[in-house]
């Protein structure tokens, strides 16, 4: 052997090659237990096969892929674990809020229905004008709010796919509100003209529609105003026109009066009689001279910050509802996927 060193190295190399081939044919770690073995020992064992070529590389890559997949499964299970305390908090927060809005919707529905019944709007002689009754709007909004909120409450409580429909409707309503805000902002120069036209039309029907009368009286009393632009605007009403034959001719409603209560207790319906015939200096001690459109504009300017805050809060509540609903939908999908995997594993 001393005379043939190269031959000895060749035999030694041949024996090492046979030894590694035998180890590959009979690995220390069985194939079925590769995934269960420790990551460090498996990597060390595979690293000793310098001469195994492509088989060792493919084994290492498959081991790395399985390790990464198991890591992803662990992180996924942790992120969407059904036992996460945050999911329970979001779930019961959504249930509570939708339950409250359901009650609010039912109350609004009952108020609208009570208003229609109290005014006998379902009577045969009044049924033709029920389409323009404001109480009908209360009923419609209350019904929509109650049904939508009840859908979200049941979907969150039962953890079913009703939440998907609830989320889609909320998203549509949110888009409509954002579009309405944008349109109102772009048409703010024309809003005053629309308000003037609407108020003049309401003044024409003041004596014929109890709802319009109540709204106009509340506006004039609350904002201390009379008419649209001036108190003389009441001349467009057939009862307050100076050519009218009744007692109210050339007068204004009692809600225009500075002191509409006689002796502080009784409503004086005749306090505005003949006010249109007075000049402004004489009329200012009896009625409000300024129109309601100017008072409305001043009120909006004074409370613009509060209005913006209310709009932001309403939009924020809806966006938060969408976030909670999306989170619960992810949890439902994860739970169904886990149930399907478990079913396949058992079968």
What's the shape? elongated
The total of helices stands at 11
- Write down the Rg: 40 Å
Output mean pLDDT: 75
Q: Describe it for me?
A:
With 347 residues, this protein is mostly helical. It contains eleven helices and two strands, in the order H-H-H-H-H-H-H-H-E-E-H-H-H. Strands 1-2 form a two-stranded antiparallel sheet. Helix 4 crosses helix 11. It is elongated. Belongs to the tetraspanin (TM4SF) family.
SSE layout and pairing:
Layout: H1 5-25, H2 39-47, H3 54-79, H4 85-118, H5 134-158, H6 162-186, H7 188-204, H8 210-223, E1 261-262, E2 266-267, H9 280-283, H10 292-302, H11 304-346
Antiparallel strand pairs: 1-2
Helix pairs in contact: 2-3, 4-5, 4-11, 5-6, 6-11
Characteristic key phrases:
347 residues; mainly alpha; two-stranded antiparallel sheet; 2 strands; elongated; disordered N terminus
Q: How would you briefly describe this protein structure?
A:
The protein is an all-alpha fold.
């Amino acid at each position: 052997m001393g005379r043939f060193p190269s031959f000895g190295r060749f035999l030694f190399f041949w024996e090492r090659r046979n030894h590694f081939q035998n180890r590959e044919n009979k690995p220390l770690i069985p194939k079925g237990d590769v995934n269960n073995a420790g990551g460090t020992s498996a990597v060390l064992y595979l690293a000793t096969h310098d001469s195994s070529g492509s088989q060792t590389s493919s084994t290492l890559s498959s081991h790395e892929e399985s390790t990464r997949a198991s890591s992803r499964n662990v992180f996924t299970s942790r992120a969407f674990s059904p036992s996460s305390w945050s999911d329970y908090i979001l779930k019961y927060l959504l249930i509570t809020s939708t339950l409250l809005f359901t009650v609010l919707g039912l109350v609004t529905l009952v108020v609208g229905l009570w208003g229609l019944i109290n005014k006998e709007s379902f009577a045969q002689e009044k049924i033709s004008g029920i389409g323009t009754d404001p109480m009908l709007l209360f009923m419609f909004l209350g019904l929509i709010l109650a049904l939508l909120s009840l859908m979200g409450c049941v979907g969150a409580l039962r953890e079913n796919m009703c939440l998907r429909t609830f989320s889609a409707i909320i998203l549509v309503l949110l888009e409509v509100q954002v579009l309405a805000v944008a349109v109102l902002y772009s048409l703010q120069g024309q809003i005053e003209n629309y308000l003037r036209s609407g108020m003049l039309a309401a003044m024409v029907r003041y004596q014929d529609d109890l709802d319009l009368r109540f709204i106009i009286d509340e506006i004039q009393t609350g904002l201390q105003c009379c008419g649209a632009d001036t108190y003389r605007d009441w001349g467009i009403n057939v009862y307050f026109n100076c050519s009218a034959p009744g007692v109210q001719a050339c007068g204004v409603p009692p809600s225009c009066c500075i002191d509409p209560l006689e002796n502080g207790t009784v409503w004086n319906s005749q306090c505005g009689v003949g006010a249109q015939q007075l000049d402004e200096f004489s009329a200012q001690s009896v009625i409000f001279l300024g129109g309601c459109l100017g008072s409305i504009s001043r009120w909006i300017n004074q409370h613009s910050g509060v209005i913006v805050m209310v709009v932001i809060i309403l939009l924020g509540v809806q966006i938060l509802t969408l976030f909670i609903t999306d989170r619960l939908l992810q949890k439902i999908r994860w739970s169904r996927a886990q149930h399907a995997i478990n079913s396949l594993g058992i079968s």
